[in-house]
Amino acid sequence: MIFGLGLPWVPETKDQARSTLRWLREGSFDDDEIEHEFSAIIKNVDEYHQSGGNWLSLFRKKPLFARLWRATLLQFMASSCGATAIKYFLPWLLEQHGISSHTTLLISAIESTVKIGFTVLEMFIIDRFGRRKCLVVGCVIMAFSLLINGAVPLLDPHRKSPATDVICVAFIFVYVIGFSLGFGPTAWVYNTEIFPTSVRARGLNFASAGAAVGSSIVTMVWSAGIGYMGSNIYFIFMAVNIICIPAIYAFFPETKGRELEDMDALFGAIETRRSDFDSRMNLSFFRETGISNPSLGLSEHLLQDDSPFRDSIESAPETNRNQGHEPSIIQ
């Protein structure tokens, strides 16, 4: 319902897109840089629409498949870290710590509110610290919280101290904070950034299958293992979070500060068209060389700058052209 109410305000025209980009980049980029990025976006959208991307292209083209398996793995890790089990079994977990059924409903509502609040906080820090750091910090927080929830009941198996239950419940909330600062929102942001426009929806849909598989495995393992293993079940998911840390650094390059159109270079696209090369040139190059119109590509500027030289060559006598001059590099 919320999405439906917001649809009338979704920008659709190029002018609205330019205004949105200007609002996003205000304070970090000047007008020329914003206009350059906008032109690159329009150019790439048109090219991707003409490329005819489909489901098979996600598997046939290596650059797209490199994105696909990473996005699927990231969603799988986000579901396998234990968040699904904590969410599904939270009322039962709270009851095991001596909390009444009525109070568990209230605490569950507070847990959802905390998750939303820290997800909003993530919006302000993800561009400052980067995607990988947010993912890794989230894994560290979750692993430590699961360690506490697994170890404390073993130290006080009969729960003689009220502090045992208080600590466990408190670190369930710490775990939720870690998920909200890490996998929760960051996995979706990362996956949205890496796919080109033509296959983004298909890529995200397929990647969500990884989340479904991870959720199913976690639910089955937790429901079957909690009765036999007790609090030791937390150590399994702690290990999963620890394993995720080197996997993040090994397989997921940082996308902070990169334009959506730069992902081809980041993930090793095989072919780069001249227009792509032009659109990715740093604007500072144009400024340093005195080029006043960065909306033109580099090749067009070189052709313009070379035209006087070519004209002088063509107007010279044939003998002079053959003996005294080398032909222009650009034909």
UniProtKB/TrEMBL annotation:
<dbReference type="InterPro" id="IPR020846">
    <property type="entry name" value="MFS_dom"/>
</dbReference>
<dbReference type="GO" id="GO:0016020">
    <property type="term" value="C:membrane"/>
</dbReference>
<feature type="transmembrane region" description="Helical">
    <location>
        <begin position="167"/>
        <end position="191"/>
    </location>
</feature>
<dbReference type="InterPro" id="IPR003663">
    <property type="entry name" value="Sugar/inositol_transpt"/>
</dbReference>
<keyword id="KW-0812">Transmembrane</keyword>
<feature type="domain" description="Major facilitator superfamily (MFS) profile">
    <location>
        <begin position="1"/>
        <end position="256"/>
    </location>
</feature>
<feature type="transmembrane region" description="Helical">
    <location>
        <begin position="68"/>
        <end position="90"/>
    </location>
</feature>
<feature type="transmembrane region" description="Helical">
    <location>
        <begin position="203"/>
        <end position="227"/>
    </location>
</feature>
<keyword id="KW-0813">Transport</keyword>
<keyword id="KW-0472">Membrane</keyword>
<dbReference type="InterPro" id="IPR036259">
    <property type="entry name" value="MFS_trans_sf"/>
</dbReference>
<dbReference type="Pfam" id="PF00083">
    <property type="entry name" value="Sugar_tr"/>
</dbReference>
<protein>
    <recommendedName>
        <fullName>Major facilitator superfamily (MFS) profile domain-containing protein</fullName>
    </recommendedName>
</protein>
<dbReference type="InterPro" id="IPR005828">
    <property type="entry name" value="MFS_sugar_transport-like"/>
</dbReference>
<feature type="transmembrane region" description="Helical">
    <location>
        <begin position="233"/>
        <end position="252"/>
    </location>
</feature>
<feature type="transmembrane region" description="Helical">
    <location>
        <begin position="134"/>
        <end position="155"/>
    </location>
</feature>
<keyword id="KW-1133">Transmembrane helix</keyword>
<dbReference type="InterPro" id="IPR050360">
    <property type="entry name" value="MFS_Sugar_Transporters"/>
</dbReference>
<feature type="region of interest" description="Disordered">
    <location>
        <begin position="309"/>
        <end position="331"/>
    </location>
</feature>
<comment type="similarity">
    <text>Belongs to the major facilitator superfamily. Sugar transporter (TC 2.A.1.1) family.</text>
</comment>
<dbReference type="GO" id="GO:0005351">
    <property type="term" value="F:carbohydrate:proton symporter activity"/>
</dbReference>
